[in-house]
Amino acid sequence: MERTSDTDRPRRRPGAALLLSSTMALAVSVVLSGCSDAPGSSSSRGGSSSVGAAAWGSCMRDAGFDIEDPSEAEWSSGVVRAPSGADGDAFQRASASCRGDDAPRASDEQKAIWDQELRDFSACMREHGLDDFPEPEPESGLDYGKYAEEPLRDSPTVTQADEECSDRYLADWGTTG
Fold first, then answer.
1. What are the Cα distances from residue 106, in Å, to 25, 44, 54, 78, 110?
2. Cα 160 from Cα 124, distance rounded (Å)
3. In terms of pTM, does the model score above 0.70?
């Protein structure tokens, strides 16, 4: 996972393990955790979380990214994936600009929890036979590396490890359909 700033949930590149391996093919995982609203609260862009998600999606399209509005699950969990082939740094900059400065941010305690969850996830992937699965980096997060590339990303070993380790260590990161 890669950090969008020192106050955001880290992101995983490319396909967040919270997603099933069929979505692991996506090139970059972007986190908007600073944007997620508390249940029952309004989006920082006004109105409901779906309005915030729509505003962010529209802004990202205006910035040149071919992306749909995030689902309610993605928006409320703070996890939004970049389109395949997108420049990760450019996507991060646009995402930060589109979400605005008034978005709530994660606490240091929450960031420490997320960092530990990523370390546990990586260890789990290695325990499932992916001996050289990378450790997350403090500032750049977790990159699946070769496991995001065909044919490895679609292998039964990677798929099963991703699903089991995600369920065990990243279940609260949200899911998408």
1. 27, 15, 22, 11, 6
2. 11
3. no
